[in-house]
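Fold this sequence, please.
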Amino acid sequence: MMSGICYLVGAGPGDPGLVTLKARDCISQADVLIYDALSSAELLTWAPEDCDKIDVGKRAASHKMPQDKINELLVAKTREAKTVVRLKGGDPMIFGRGGEEAAALAEAGMKFEIVPGISSALAGPVYAGIPLTHRDYGSTLTIFSGHEADDKSEATLDFQALAKAPGTKVFLMGVSRLGYNCEKLIAHGADPATPIALTRWATTGRQRTITGTLETIEDIAQQENFKAPAVGVIGNIIKEMKKIHWYEDRPLQGKRIVVTRSQEQAPELVRKLSDLGADVIELPVLKICDPVNKMEFAEGVANVHTYDWLVFSSTNGVRRFFDAFFATYKDARSIGGVRIAAVGPGTKKAIEDYRFAVDLVPERHIAEGLLDSFRNDYDVDSQTILWVRPENARSILSDGLTEMRAIVDECIAYRIESEAEDPTGAAARFSDKGADIVTFTSSSTAQYFHALELPWPDECKAASIGPITTAKLKELGEQKIIQAEAHSIDGLVEAIVSELV
């Protein structure tokens, strides 16, 4: 019987931008994706739509599935002739038990490959502004685990060797035993005044660093309520941190912001906010699905060359339409002489990404603004218009164009449904930790978010992309609303920065 292949893939330290190209390629080809607790839901969006995603939830002191069962699952799925991706935080072979999983696959005769990732042991100190090697502080680097396996009868760390080791020392999984490890190092000859830094949630918007000495760090960590996951650095090289500290002083650092867009749409907004330092909670409340009548949609796409105008009122419609268009036609010229209208700059850019020019973008980036532009600048009497829209869209475009004596056909490209999956536990995190801002990029995101009935923190504000979304938020009872001046993702980000900085 033919078996498949299992890729043991490092997901990096948290920032999706630090995931390797090969890791992304593996995820994009996966039949089965078996993943640990992830900092970013974006990685899951790289998998095919029909991929079987299995959350085994490994995180410090909290495992949804024990390791022996994970090993069995990897073997079973690979034996089914599947392309299996085992996605593990950091590097699978650096304190990630990847060696045990590889051994289980090898013992079962399964084919596997290992795709290294960037470990937080390497990335965490760098994002805290700490070089791992420096000619003034030594050229050696020692990495060790600060918390050994619970099933070990006695500690095997050689504290005497660690205490005497020159250069920089980095440890993972050591927060819960921080005092013990520091005491042992001091007892075996380490200077109590040796600097130490701890960086929590390295490379993400939650990153936070504290510093002290081997003698003082335990008390400092307790006072700061500093908890895992964290990477620790020991050594005089920490003095360089004052010079090259770069990540934790960005404008939105420490601000918790919720993104409610669908998983396939969220990455752009998430990335812009994260680049400014925000701690982004990805909580997709809706998903974009195929229309009920796929045949009718396909006919609209196939006949686009027969229309005078092609009108798009969303980026989702653009992507759905042109993906279907190029699945039908091999030549872009098959679109004919149709002119193209877009409701706003985001939709315009999505169209231009397919190498088509846009003839009309209104000054007001809403349906009413699009109607005004047609009314004032174009004579559409007896002209044929194909409006690409979602199911249950407002009828204002169709009604308004029909009043202008245009012949309007509606091409329903997608439908919106509530999102049942929550792969990163974002809803629980919002309920527990709250947020400074919840973003809404459409009236649908507002509607589906409020349907979750999550507790709304007292000081939390809603950030709306435009007046239609704002109207829906007010209808749902929200009062603390900030609205983007430019009704686009960039405009929304600018409004958030103006509010919080």
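The mean pLDDT is 92. The domain at 5-118 is CATH 3.40.1010.10 (Cobalt-precorrin-4 Transmethylase; domain 1).
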